Amino acid sequence: MKVLALSGGVGGAKLALGLARVLPVDALTVVANTADDFEHLGFYIAPDLDTVMYTLAGINDSERGWGLAGESWQCLDALDRLGGERWFQLGDRDLATHILRSSLLREGLSLTEVTARLCDALQVAVTLLPMSDDPVRTLVDCEDGELPFQHYFVREQCRPAVRGFRFEGQQLARPQAQFMELLADPELGLVVICPSNPFVSVDPILGLPAVRDALASCAAPVYAVSPIVGDRALKGPAAKMMAELGLPVSAASVAAHYRGLVDTFVMDDSDATLAGTIDEPGMQVMTAPTVMKSLEDREQLARVLLSHAEDAKP
């Protein structure tokens, strides 16, 4: 079956890798959030795209969860000595990606075309697409005003309390063309919303014009994997954001967030007692081992989702 995965950064990349390892290379398409993208020191930075790309290429830093394995920081140290900003850590090898991407974008290539070139060079066989070739930027509404996402997430280390989010340019952005074509493909067998932050990783994708309608009408079932296990997020600030927005920190709150969009909601086995409390019309609930600590865990979750979707076919 053809499979479409919607992904943010670290958590989404883990499941994307699991799917990539158990599916034929031409069966999987991963669409990554680009609302985290920003310009820094003259470079176009695409954090979620790069995290997914490096993970699929097998060259990511699995300890930090972002960046490249075996990275060095000599350029950043030299920049610091010169009085430049170093709050956003750009490794020496990682810089090559940003230099080339920025150069190709200035030459007039689209973000889709640039991503394809980078993936080809890194021997990433599955299709990785940005959610849009048009700019969308996440702004975090905090106590003291709006912050661009990377300033909130990296520079401020998620310390400010959040009150909401705004996606600048979202309603004018066109969803990536191949992404929309795949949603209309009768051979699409499964859509997976990866265990990424529902507010700042998934909502930027879902809020693009026509995406929700295309998901609702596509031939494939839509599965969403919860990024919340127990009362915490496995990675990132999702739990903190939920608490500050006045939402219970639980998988049930994530299920409610995807109300009317998702056919099957997937929560961790450890949250099985919550399954009966989720009463969302049209949404089935299943439990599975969703905590992906090892490569085997990633593959196992991918197989469970594919098997469940296959068994659920009419």
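the 2nd protein, sequnce then structure:
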Amino acid sequence: MATGFEHILHWRLLAGSHPFPGPDGGTCINEAAIVAAGLPYRTIRSSSDCPPCFSRPLAAYALGLNDAMPDDRRPRLMAFVLRLSGSADTPEVEQRRARFLAFESIRRILPPLLDRAGFVDLAARCDDAQELDAAVSAARDAAWRGSAVAQAASGQRAWRRGALASAIGRSAAAAVRSAEDARCAAEVAEGAAPFTEGVWDSAVTILDQALAIGRKAPDIDLIQARDRLDAARAGAARTSAASGG
């Protein structure tokens, strides 16, 4: 780990949007990236709220993971805090990134969930897909089957089976939408995580690899980033003290 970066990891990430950082950080990943880059702070509710220098699909996926990950896993996203500002690229590259996020979410995250429900044929189709259209077709069929099984299980009071099938229906439906909205790719992981192991590891790896597509964010000096984060924390602590919070 680069000298100084371990200090940046002390920033606390929280789900949701925040009008200003808290004394211990208290922002989402994109808000933390804004602070670290020295840009004017803003509340981020969606990727469209990010500065223009942020890649929209990458920011949307990161934000989706930020809001979905459990508190004890969310700090892993701080590894990307210096890689988002300046990542915006051409429309063609942004589309490639969005398609990558969708494709890899279907190919890596859906199959273990489908296998657990016994949908081995659909798991194989997702895993073996060679291009996005085939992967989306498999996800669409998985969404239909999961919803059908969930409905039948509800009628039979088979709650556990129904919960798993319902998760498949939601995750697969999100996968179908993910090529158009990268945040939906994060919803694939959110639906699968309660039922399969290693989902968040896979999701973080997908983000890391998507960031390698196209323009890389310019290097941000670690000391400057650390000082900006510390200044934001200190300012928040002064504001809190002045208001009696």
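The chain is about 60% helix and 0% strand. The beta strands are 12-13, 25-27.
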